[in-house]
Specification:
Layout: H1 8-27, E1 38-41, E2 50-58, E3 66-68, E4 83-85, E5 109-110, E6 115-122, E7 127-133, H2 140-150, E8 158-163, H3 187-206, E9 209-218, E10 227-228, E11 239-246, E12 252-259, E13 272-273, H4 277-287, E14 289-291, E15 294-297, E16 303-308, E17 315-316, E18 323-324, E19 331-332, H5 337-355, E20 359-360, E21 365-375, H6 379-387, E22 399-409, E23 412-416, E24 420-421, H7 423-427, H8 449-452, E25 457-461, E26 470-471, H9 502-516
Parallel strand pairs: 5-13, 7-8, 12-16, 23-25, 24-26
Antiparallel strand pairs: 1-21, 2-6, 2-9, 3-4, 6-7, 9-11, 9-20, 10-17, 11-12, 14-15, 18-19, 21-22, 22-23
């Protein structure tokens, strides 16, 4: 048998390959091999008494350095002379990388705070916690970390953590560091956010009071506040509001507001940390709405949570979109805080006006939730896992463990979406264009999820308990030319999606769960 002779260089290459393989295998390990979830809880048959509690904790990082941007390009570039300096003018570097848009967009200051806002609802049988955070996303690994830290501390039956998908906050997914090979998440900030979420739930539980619930919606009023940038043009126009009031004093304990749009109105050149237009939504509903320093609409008081609905498609308010001042014949365009304020204030007005016709919520909590596997067909996602940029191990080879839930409280129902859902999957309007990569005769993701949801008021909670990227109808999947609707170039979306099977698997899973949910 012929012996293979290895040169020193060949041996070195072999060692490097083996080490890289071990590194990639280690990064792909399952972070929580002992974790799975399967819940099917029926509401109590007797008349229930609600308790509700709210809390709001800041999750704004401290920006201790001054960023000197020599090129005014909103990206840190040392070669262009950009620097970070401490208070004494000494060059230093300890950036928080802002998520969304491009890499190397370092935070230079704070405009308004980021929040972890918690709502706990208890029907005497089930205790549900919902936390809305002003971040780009919160992966399922982090959700499990929070649940393990919660353990049995506060008697929580189920926790939903929703990210607003804010593009003006620190990276929490790893994709926006200062290079393609460096994870953009600050690990100290990451763990601190997890702990703040746990703390916010604890405070909300401490604040539990006997409560009445009311619900309202405005299904059309927000149409002018964003655009759908990809055909077919389908928006999730509804603004959905759940309000909890003190059963004794009738004062507002808090409210939960959902609308479908990317919080990126400040766009790509902004480097100030901000929660974008949701800041003005919450401020307006809590404290009232003012014009020329005069109160135009009284606020509710309490603590308001804002969550994103269906943002795929892509639902956005890019600089070219004009937003009208809610009280004056003035239109704002570009990417300014005045525009974000007009947008958020208009949404707050829609919510407050809708609540004037709100209906009481009656009945206990029905809840179905489960973890399941999602194949990762995106090669870039797999590479990110292998390099440790995406800190999400596989539950089995090239599969992420993720989660979804369906629940109802009387005439109100909720579904949780582990990513950015295209609105047509929820509300209808999926098309089968001839240029689609899979040449499907009929859509797979039918009927629309809202057609399966019970009750009159149907909340779709996007980026809830995970962020798998865009969730695109398979018939509209398009990476290969010719492109959809005779477009001259490929559409945006597929590059930031787990893969073409994401939507069919999620739809099938939720359909089965909704069919089991009491009508």
């Amino acid at each position: 048998m012929r012996k293979i002779k290895w040169s020193a260089f060949g041996l070195a290459i072999l060692v490097v390959i083996i080490l890289l393989g071990v590194f990639a295998f280690y990064n792909g390990r399952n972070r929580h091999p002992d974790y799975s979830l399967s819940l099917n809880i029926k509401a109590p048959k007797d008349t229930v008494t609600y308790k509700a509690g709210f809390a709001a904790l800041k999750i704004t990082p401290e920006i201790s350095e001054k960023w000197i941007d020599k090129n005014d390009d909103a990206a840190y570039n040392k070669e262009d002379g950009d620097t970070f300096e401490d208070k004494n003018g000494n060059e230093k570097f300890d950036a928080y990388w802002l998520a969304g848009f491009s890499k190397k967009r370092a935070a230079s200051g704070v405009h308004d705070h980021l929040w972890a806002r918690a709502m706990v609802i208890d029907d005497g049988h089930t205790r549900l916690a919902v936390v809305a955070i002003d971040l780009i996303g919160f992966p399922h690994n982090n959700v499990i970390n929070v649940r393990k830290k919660l353990a049995d501390k506060f008697g929580i039956t189920y926790t939903i953590i929703c990210s607003t998908h804010n593009h003006e906050a620190p990276d929490m997914l790893g994709l926006w560091g200062d290079s393609f090979l460096k994870r953009g998440v600050n690990p100290i900030f990451e763990k601190w956010v997890e702990n703040r979420i746990v703390e916010s739930i604890g405070i909300a539980v401490k604040n539990l009071k006997t409560a009445n619930l009311r619900v309202a919606q405005d299904l059309t009023g927000s149409d002018s506040l964003n655009i759908d940038t990809r055909k077919p043009i389908v928006k999730d126009k509804g603004v959905y509001i759940l309000q909890a009031t003190d059963a004794k004093s009738d004062s507002t304990l808090g409210a939960f507001v959902v609308w479908g749009n990317h919080p990126e109105t400040l766009w790509s050149k902004n480097t100030l940390i901000t929660s974008d237009f949701p800041h003005y939504v919450r401020e307006g509903i809590e404290k009232g709405i003012y014009t020329d320093k005069k109160l135009a609409k009284k606020g509710l008081g309490g603590i308001v949570l804002y969550a994103s609905g269906c943002v795929g498609g892509l639902m956005t308010t890019r600089p070219t979109v004009k937003i009208k001042d809610p009280f004056k014949d003035v239109y704002y365009e570009g990417a300014t805080f005045e525009k974000a304020e007009a947008q958020g204030t208009t949404l707050a007005l829609l919510a407050l006006n809708a609540l004037e016709k709100s209906e009481p919520v009656k009945g206990g909590i029905n809840l179905i939730a489960k973890t399941f596997e999602m194949p990762v067909g995106n090669i870039l996602f797999r590479l990110g896992v292998a390099l440790g940029i995406i800190d999400s191990g596989y539950s089995s080879w090239a599969h992420f463990q993720t989660e979804t839930a369906a629940l109802s409280i009387g005439e109100v129902s909720f579904i949780t979406i582990p990513g950015e859902l295209y609105p047509e999957i929820a509300s209808g309007g999926i098309e089968t264009p001839k240029e689609g990569d899979f040449k499907l005769a009929e859509p797979i993701e039918t009927p629309p999820l809202r057609n399966l949801m019970p009750g009159k008021y149907k909340f779709v909670l996007g980026l809830a308990n995970d962020e798998l990227g865009y969730i695109i109808p398979k018939s509209e999947w398009d990476k290969e030319a010719p492109y959809l609707y005779d477009s001259p170039k490929a559409h945006y979306g597929e590059v930031n999606s787990a893969g073409p099977e994401t939507a069919p698997i999620l739809h099938k899973t939720l359909k089965e769960m909704l069919e089991k949910l009491p009508k």
